[in-house]
Amino acid sequence: MTEVSSLTGRLLVATPKLADPNFDRAVVLVLEHDAKGSIGVVLNRPTPVGVGDVLQPWAALAVLPQVVFQGGPVSLDSALGLAVVPGESRGEPVEVLGWRRVHGAIGLVDLDAPPELLAAELGSLRIFAGYSGWGAGQLERELTGGAWYVVDSEPGDVSAPDPERLWRAVLRRQRNKLAMVATYPDDPSLN
Predict the structure, then answer these.
(1) How far is residue 99 from each of residues 15, 96, 106, 178, measured CA to CA in Å?
(2) Which of 71, 79, 97, 109 has its CA 20 to 30 A from that of 30?
(3) In total, how many domains does the chain have?
(4) pTM for the whole thing?
């Protein structure tokens, strides 16, 4: 069996030629990636639903905009919390009850835990409804087909204050030809 290089903690940025409307200009943070498949969340799909409307105890800890984000098309009736713990970004090992590190300072929050246990440790929190998932080899085929750019994530991507602009912002910060893709028009036929 071929070994799969893990993309955990990296960003998948939809290329302009990706045809799936679920991922049009999506920025996906990969939470798990191995030979069995991949799981991630779309970071730039805010919904009109407030965090307080569905998870009131966590509302005060959510960063602006304090809405639930659509993490992907799978299991939209489930919630997932992502948070940044500042000590992790400084390289200090941090043990936070109710938080599991995914990559660097970014980790998953146990939404069944009392928010008071985590409140002092969290730098930011975002709530997602659903997730994005790929079966074994599916993401690799999409990558080979040119559907995604793979780039490094930054802790601030999880809590971007203007998520609708995240696709362009992530591409613009690349130090290669990808920075030019950020200027790709929303509708190339109008060009």
Answers:
(1) 32, 6, 9, 33
(2) 97
(3) 1
(4) 0.91
